[in-house]
Amino acid sequence: MSSNWTPVALSQDVLPGMAIPAHLQDQDLVVWRSATGRIAAWHDRCPHRGMRLSHGFVRGEFLSCIYHGWRYGEDGQCRKIPAHPELAPPAAIKVPRFAVCESAGVVWVAPEGETSEPVDLPGFRGFRSVAVNAAADQVARDVAGQGHLGGCDVVMLVQPLPGGDCGLHVLVADGCADAQLDALSHAIEALRRRLEQGVAA
Amino acid sequence: MILYDYVLSPSCYKVRLLASLLGTGLDLRPVDFHPGAEHHGPEFRALNPAGTIPVLTDARLVLTESGAILTYLAAVKAPEWLGHDDPAMQARVANWLAFSQRLTASAGGARLHDMLGFSGDIDTLRAQATDALRELEAAIHARRRRGGIFLAADRPTIADIACFPYAALAPDGGVSLDPYPSIRLWMRAIRALPGFIEMPGIHRLHEQMPEPGPMPDVVRKESA
Amino acid sequence: MSVTMQDHWYPVALASGLRRSARDTLLLGRAIRVALDDGGAPVVTAEGRALPVQVKFGHVWTTLGVPAGDVFDIPEADQPGRRLVEVGSVKVRCSPLRAVENFLDIAHFPFVHTDVLGSEPHTEVERYEVEIRDDVDEVWATKVKFFQPQAARSAQGGITTEYMYRVPGPTCSVLYKTCPPRPGEWDVITLFVQPLTETTCEVWPWMALFDDDSTMTEMIHFQQLIFLQDRSILENQLPALLPLDPGREIPTRADMLSIAYRRWLKRHGYTFGAQLVAA
Description:
The complex is a heterotrimer.
Chain A: E1 6-10, E2 18-24, E3 27-33, E4 39-43, E5 57-59, E6 62-64, E7 71-72, E8 78-80, E9 97-103, E10 106-110, E11 124-132, H1 136-143, E12 148-149, E13 152-160, E14 166-173, H2 178-200
Antiparallel strand pairs in A: 1-10, 2-3, 3-4, 4-9, 5-6, 6-7, 7-8, 9-10, 11-14, 12-13, 13-14
Chain B: E1 2-5, H1 10-21, E2 27-30, H2 42-47, E3 55-58, E4 61-63, H3 66-77, H4 87-116, H5 122-145, H6 158-168, H7 181-191, H8 217-223
Parallel strand pairs in B: 1-2
Antiparallel strand pairs in B: 1-3, 3-4
Chain C: E1 10-14, E2 23-27, E3 30-36, E4 42-46, E5 49-51, E6 53-56, E7 59-62, E8 83-86, E9 90-92, H1 96-103, H2 109-112, E10 129-133, E11 138-148, E12 159-169, E13 172-178, E14 186-197, E15 200-209, H3 216-234, E16 242-243, H4 256-268, E17 274-275
Parallel strand pairs in C: 16-17
Antiparallel strand pairs in C: 1-7, 2-3, 3-4, 4-5, 6-7, 8-15, 9-15, 10-11, 11-12, 12-13, 13-14, 14-15
C-alpha cells in the first residue's frame, strides 16, 4: 500500500472505555477509546516499570496502568501517581503517541506527525479481524484485487504482525443480509485455512 | 453445598464464580493440590476416585465434573442460567459445556505445563488451544452480528461460565489472546456482570470504580 | 576475589517434594538434576559434576560456583510457635530480578491485589527508610507502612501494616510484616527465586507465620493467590530484562527500595536477567 497508514483494528472492536493491544510493524501499541469515544494509539509501555498499558483500565478520558495505577491523559502525559496523591507528575513522564484515525470502520495508525489521510473506502464497513499464521506480503499477494468473498463485496486489508504472522481485516459492503454475512465469516475461516496450509506445505 | 476447592483451579473458579453471580454461598474446603497433591491421597480418592477437583457435595449427592456442578447449582438456585427456554438453546448450552472440556484439556494443559511444571507436549497443547479459541471467536462474532454477546442466549448462561476461565487464562500457558477481539468483548461482558469475582490472572474491571478522591482523613492520621 | 551470581546459593526444590525420580531443571541457564541418593539425601549435579547442597527453610539449595558461606540465616524463623509454610513453586516467564523487584514493591497492592493487600483510595506510599548494610552486604528497607484491607489469612478487616524488607542475595528476599494475632512480632514471608534463564524463573515462596487459626492449606492458598496475581504483571513488562541503567524506567519516591536493589545489583555485577545499556 502506498499509504503510510496501517490498519490495526476494527472500530467496532474497541468500545468506549476499552484498551486493546495492537501493533505497528514491530512496535507494541495500546489502542484505547475514552468514555466519550476518543480513540488513541500509544506505545504499549508504562514509563514507570515497563508494564503493558493494554492491560490497563480506562476511566473517563484517562488511561491507567494496571500495575501502579499511573494515570495518563489524552496527550500521553502522566496526570496522577496514586502512590503520591498530592504530587503533580513531572512533565518528563509521558507515553509516546502515534497518529491515529478512523475511517470505514477501521482504526488506522501511523507514526506521529503523519499529515496524509488514510485510504477512503466509501460504502464499506468493518466486518472481522483475524490473525493468520502466514507472512503479510504473501497473504497480500494472495488476496490482491480480490473484491468478493463468500458472496459479499469485500475489501481485505493485510497488516504485518511481529513474529511473521499477519492480521487480515475484512470490510464488507453495506447492505448484506445476515445469511450472507454468515457465509462470509465461514469464507474468511476457509481462506485462513488455505493461507496457513500454504505455509505448512 | 460443599465445594472442594483450589484457588488456582479454573474449574473450581467456575463454580465459585457462578455461585457469586447467583448470590449464593458455598462452604469451601481448600484442597492442597499443589504442592501437597492431596487430591491423589486416599481420603480424597474416597470422595472422588478420579482424584480431580472440583467436587461438590450436597447432602448425599457427590458431583465431580464442573459442567454437572454448574448445572446443579443453576437448577437449584437460578434455573434461568440453564438456558432451557427452548430445545435449541438447551442444546447450545450442552454443546458449549462439552466444548469447554476442549479448552480445559488444551489451554488448561498448557497452563499446568508452563506454570506448575506438569508434563505435556506444549506445542500440541498450544495448537489445540488456538483451534478452540478460533472456534470460540467465530461463534461469538456470529452472536455479535445478531446483537448479542453471550454464547447460548441473549443473557449469560452456564455455557459462558463453563468456557470463560480457561479462555481468559490462556496466556498463562503461553497462548496469546491478542488476536481475538470478540472473545475480548465477551470476557469484558462477563467481568461486568453484577457479582463477578476474579481469580489470579483475571483482573476485575477497575474501570467500574469511580476515580477516587483524596485518602480519607481517618486513615491519614492513623498512619502518620 | 569478587563474588559473582554463580557463587550464590539458589533454591532448586522443596526437600519434602523430592521423589526417587530426578527433577531436571535449569540454574542460571545451565542444566542441573536434583535427585535423592540411596540414603535419601538430596544431590544436585550439573553435567555429571556434583554441586554443593544445603537444605534450609524446607528447600534444597545449590550453587554453581564457590559460595562465600552457608545459605543466609533468618533468625526469626527459628522462634518457637511459628508455622513453616512450604508454598511450592510457580514458573514465570520473566527475569528473576523482575520477580524479586515486584516482591519489594508495595505501591501495586491496590491495583493488583485489590481488596486483599490494598484498595483505592488508600494508595499513598509514605516515606520509608532504605539502606545497603555494608557489614552484611544486604539491602534493607524499614518503616514501610501501608493500609491493607486483609493483610493476612488471619487478619480481620483493614489495618495499617508495617513492613521491613531484606535482600540477602540477588534473587532472594525476606519480608517482615506486622503480625495481626501477635502485636510486637513479625511474620516472615520470603520469595526465593530460582533463576532458570535470564527471562524465566521458578519462584519458591516460603513463610514462617504466627497463625493458630488457619489450616496449612489455607495459608498455602492465600500466598499462592497473592503470587499468581503478580504473575500476569511480571509476564507483561517490557523489556523482559530488568533495566539497571537509570533513564529507561522512571521511578518515584515510593520506589526507593527498587532503586537501591538495582544499584546494589549493578555494583556487584549481578546482571543475569538485567539489561545494562538502554535499548
